[in-house]
Amino acid sequence: MRKKRRMLLGVLITGLISAVLVYNYVFNSAHRDISNEEATVSLSAKAIFEQFQTNEALATTNYLDQVIEMKGDVTSIEDNDVVLSSAVQVSFNSQETLKFQKGEQITIKGRCVGYDELLELVKIDQSTLIK
Description:
It holds the Pfam family tRNA_anti-like. The protein folds into two domains: 1-30; 34-130, CATH 2.40.50.140. Helices cover 34% and strands 36% of the residues. The chain has helices at 2-28, 45-54, 56-63; strands at 41-44, 67-78, 81-84, 88-92, 105-116, 121-130. The longest helix has 27 residues, at 2-28. It is elongated and about 80 Å long.
């Protein structure tokens, strides 16, 4: 009977330690800093939009969660979001959108989060303006 209690106590302690380690790893690990990462691909807003329109599964495989450098004309400005070439919605972490004017061509770097079929826009977040 004592062996079973010791074994149960050992399993409980091991489980508790494992839970604490997993919690620390998930909630206290360093977050990804897209602004300091190197872009894996550079292309225009129209080009990435056409790739998602042609073959969404392949484009998702190629670009999802990748850091992308992109050029395009500002067609819409709203809060911290900008739409480039009526094809890509770009979200900024800061108030950088206050600097832009419609029709201005900009180059950004950000993380691709996929394609919104409802709005028919490619979504990019954590973006920064490249000078």
